[in-house]
Design a protein that fits this description.
Blueprint: H1 3-15, H2 33-53, E1 57-63, E2 76-82, E3 91-98, E4 105-111, H3 112-115, E5 122-129, H4 132-143, H5 145-148, H6 170-183, H7 188-197, E6 203-206, H8 209-218, H9 229-232, E7 236-239, H10 242-252, E8 259-261
Antiparallel strand pairs: 1-2, 1-5, 2-3, 3-4, 5-8, 6-7
Helix pairs in contact: 4-6, 6-7
Amino acid sequence: MTPCWRALALAAALALAGTAQAGRPCDETPMSASAVERGLALAERTQAALETSGATVVLLARAGQDLSAHRLQWSHLGLAYRDGDGPGAPWRVLHKLNHCGTAEAAVYRQGLGLFFLDSPFRYEAAFLPLAPALAAQLRPLLQDNTRGTRLHEARYNMLAYPWATRYQQSNQWAVETLAMAAGGAADRAQAQAWLRAQGYQPTVLQLGPLTRLGARATRANVAFDDHPNDQRFADRIATMTVDSVFAWLPRTGLAGAVVTVR
């Protein structure tokens, strides 16, 4: 590990105390040195892959939770961009994080090191390079604090319905922001209309009434009242997942193939 990464490791470990996490309660247990090192090593591998790809903006995913029961690989999506054009320009990630399992969330800008220091379930990453024209539209938006958070909704729901605006989960914010850049959407409803027109199809989870009741009763960041009754009572919970976005976006011609980093 290079000296700059060692310094980042120390700063990141201190910063992580009480940090927000995407859809998970805060864990006050200090990170082990091994976990910090593995997270930063993944960040290094990801940066090398990003540089090799030649991309300037990507959708970047991590495996924060084990979602294999739902046949999903990735749990959390961010918008990563190269912050400059010269050699060695750093990569930044703009992404939405849930406040420690509460019903509130905010958008954060982090380096790759911090992005992967969230105790992932699996130390792997994946990214989807955006087409140059879309990347050119999206990058200045991501660099601007006001424009980058224009479609952010603070009310968080881990299983937010993708065609409603009452709540917003992390993946939903990222893709709606992409839709704002690509389709000129002025608000979330217009962004969702653009996504529908482009053929996006959400993941549909099969969640029975007892599972829904238990999740709603025990987790502040889960709600189902934005889902249509006919779908909810048929145990069909549609939500936006990384896997569904990665399956859809290359078909539109707006992104290349998924690159996996192990």
